[in-house]
Amino acid sequence: MHDVRIIYQYTGRQTLALIKPDAISKAGEIIEIINKAGFTITKLKMMMLSRKEALDFHVDHQSRPFYNELIQFITTGPVIAMEILRDDAICEWKRLLGPANSGVARTDASGSIRALFGTDGIRNAAHGPDSFASAAREMELFFPSSGGCGPANTAKFTNCTCCIVKPHAVSEGLLGKILMAIRDAGFEISAMQMFNMDRVNVEEFYEVYKGVVTEYHDMVTEMYSGPCVAMEIQQNDATKTFREFCGPADPEIARHLRPGTLRAIFGKTKIQNAVHCTDLPEDGLLELINYLSSSDV
Fold first, then answer.
1. Where is the active site (predicted)?
2. Residue range 166-205, pLDDT digits in tens
3. What is the pLDDT of residues 41-97, one digit of tens each?
4. I need a surface site. Which of 20, 49, 92, 283 has the fewest CB within 10 A?
């Protein structure tokens, strides 16, 4: 009965999208493709699979000759697991992926994800389940319906700062572009997770601004209006350098003074300015521990 309930829960409009270790550096491009295809990302987490989790994930392939290589590969680095949503999600995601062998994909589906970012039949950039039953089983592994955390996140909590992509930017499909911009600026995204904040959490988060900035209440409302994506950003002197890359809080000012910054490119107003970044190193660590340790994805 438990399996039937899970299959029913994931029937129809949801499927798992998994970015494999070989394509983590292309996560922005892949997420951009997902958004442009009409999918909504409803859950997201960068994870590191243990050997046991990899065995559970690839249980359907245990009789295949490439099984051991598959297990070894999927545990070599982080993966990004997502729940993606749209009509006929399983078939549409498989269509975007293309044939399992990246060489075949380059011949038969040259615009597919595996053709663009994969290498061969093992290192093929991304994964999607073939059926409702597989989708249900795999979603349970990465995002347990019991409320558990699933595989461990990849946060290092050292030499880092926190970036939060705000709800308006997530809902507008800007996440992929923001990830690409961060990568191209030389920063490493070492952990990432989608989460939701409630009003009480946001008021506590923005407490320092209460009574100080006139936009306080609008800032609070924006941050709990939808899902956010928290990221651990690593680089030398990460807090200072990343804050500079985000630019002034007001996107209009940013476009005049720092046109290449995240807020200049992706921000709309002082409230909807695309990203939050940490001002102080100690605050960044606290924010990361809070949001990347949460099971609310």
1. 127
2. 999 999 999 999 999 999 999 999 999 999 999 999 999 8
3. 999 999 999 999 999 998 887 778 788 999 999 999 999 999 999 999 999 999 999
4. 283
| Integer Cα distance of 115 and 107 in angstroms | 8
Single residue among 102, 124, 152 that ends a domain in this structure: 152
> Which of the following is catalytic: 58, 61, 127, 256?
127
Instruction: Mean pLDDT check: name the lowest of 4-8, 46-50, 208-212, 275-279.
Output: 4-8
> Which 8-state DSSP code applies to residue 25?
G
Torsion of CA 202, 203, 207, 211, to 10 degrees: 130
Q: Which of 96, 130, 152 is the last residue of a domain?
A: 152
| Structural domain containing residue 272 | 155-292
- Judge whether 275 and 246 are in contact, CB under 8 Å: yes
CATH number for 207: 3.30.70.141
Secondary-structure breakdown of the chain: helix, strand, coil percentages, each rounded to the nearest 5: 45, 15, 35
Residue 261 scores a pLDDT above 80: yes
- Please say whether the dihedral angle defined by the alpha carbons of residues 76, 31, 238 and 224, taken in this order, is positive or negative: negative
127 is catalytic: yes
- 83: nearest Cα among 135, 33, 36: 135
23 Cβ contact list (under 8 Å, min separation 6): 30, 117, 118, 125, 126
Dihedral, 21, 124, 130, 80 alpha carbons, nearest 10: 20
CB 275 within 8 A of CB 251: no
How many domains would you assign to the chain? 2
* pTM greater than the 0.85 cutoff: yes
C-alpha atoms less than 13 angstroms from C-alpha of 40 in its C-beta half-sphere = 11
Q: How far is CA 88 from CA 36, 82, 91, 173, 212, in A?
A: 15, 16, 6, 20, 48
109 and 197 belong to one structural domain: no
